[in-house]
Known about the structure:
Number of helices: 17
Shape: globular
Structural class: alpha/beta
Helix content: 40-55%
CATH class of the largest domain: Alpha Beta
Largest sheet: 8 strands, mixed
Pathway: Amino-acid biosynthesis; L-homocysteine biosynthesis; L-homocysteine from S-adenosyl-L-homocysteine: step 1/1
Protein name: Adenosylhomocysteinase
Distance between the termini: 67 Å
GO cellular component, one term: cytosol
Number of strands: 15
CATH architecture of the largest domain: 3-Layer(aba) Sandwich
Binding site for NAD(+): 150-152, 184, 213-220, 236, 271, 292-294, 340, 347
CATH topology of the largest domain: Rossmann fold
EC number: 3.13.2.1
Amino acid sequence: MSDVADASLAYAGVRRIEWADRSMPVLAQIRERFAAERPLDGLRIAACMHVTTETANLIRTLQAGGARVALAASNPLSTQDDTAAALAHEYGAEVYARAGTDREGYYRHIHQALEIDPDLVLDDGCDLVNILHTERTDLLDTVRAGCEQTTTGVIRLHQMAREGALRFPVVAVNDTDTKHMFDNRYGTGQSTLDGIIRATNTLLAGKTVVIAGFGYCGRGLAERARGMGARVVVTEIDPVKALDATLQGFEVRPMAEAARRGDVFITVTGNRDVIDGVHLAMMKDGAILANSGHFDVEIDVRALEELAVTVHRGVRPQADEYVLADGRRLVLLAEGRLVNLAAAEGHPAAVMDMSFADQALTCAWLAEAHATLAAGVHDVPQEIDTEVARLKLASMSVEIDVLTPEQDDYLRSWRLGS
């Protein structure tokens, strides 16, 4: 039923999954609740997500709720083969994922995951939803609803909805506060720098780090790079975000100017060709190029290949060196794919605890609410976001104040003045 690289890795995968589970107390509580209440009983869920230990604990939670789950990888370089083996051979999921598979294998795996005729879909970048609407339209009538985990995927879904192409409701889990405020900011901020440091062993202190995009991911990166002693330059197209970066003390410049100055470049925009051939031609010797946007289109790798006269593959793990005609060397990390998952282990489990708690509770809500939702992009109900935050605070032994009845009345009334 599954397609994984090596079944003998399953035991090692179980150990790593259980290690991650220690830092995911909210999801563990939801798993216990699901096992008792079975809110997903009989449902088939197809997922296209990063096959990591944290995702494995989400899959276990959905299974505890009664779901049959088929999982395909959303990025070949992020797949952990031991995790895939454990899910397939120890936890009873259907898994289609091999680290480093080619483009043909990537899409074949998504098609295989869809063979369960899903009732619900979970996506990480909108590729699975895209295939449903282009190549597997025969399954659209059976899909009740879905969830999307990434900024890039939500952008694509909104475009589908605007064009009237989206055939079922999809909940933008990415847009919940307990996802984008923490996963995107703290998770991406830490894990991206972790991947860059592992791949290059560079010292960030004293370096000029150019960050393309100042959404939640860019903010987290800028904060952490500055905390490690880097000079941070931000590039943006959004005046409000550029102003935000400026008032936080970051230098804001167009990429055409930043390209000449940067030592390390990190793209987190969700768009293509953010660093193009013109920018690459300006960069200084030894510049490091990394991407933490979902797809490998933010850095124009084809232009880099055309500029290079020599390419040294694997100068370090997940680092390729491109030598230009004048002898300058540019170092591309993780082939321009997600550096935090290809060169490191992705977000810490403690922050994915919230994101995947959002996913699990939203799936349970959709099991009942899907019939009331029109085709299109929907928000996660506020009560789910609040519940996840409450459970996370409790797991950290953090207490907060509670409104008195008088305070509650005051907030609810417009008649009371000063």
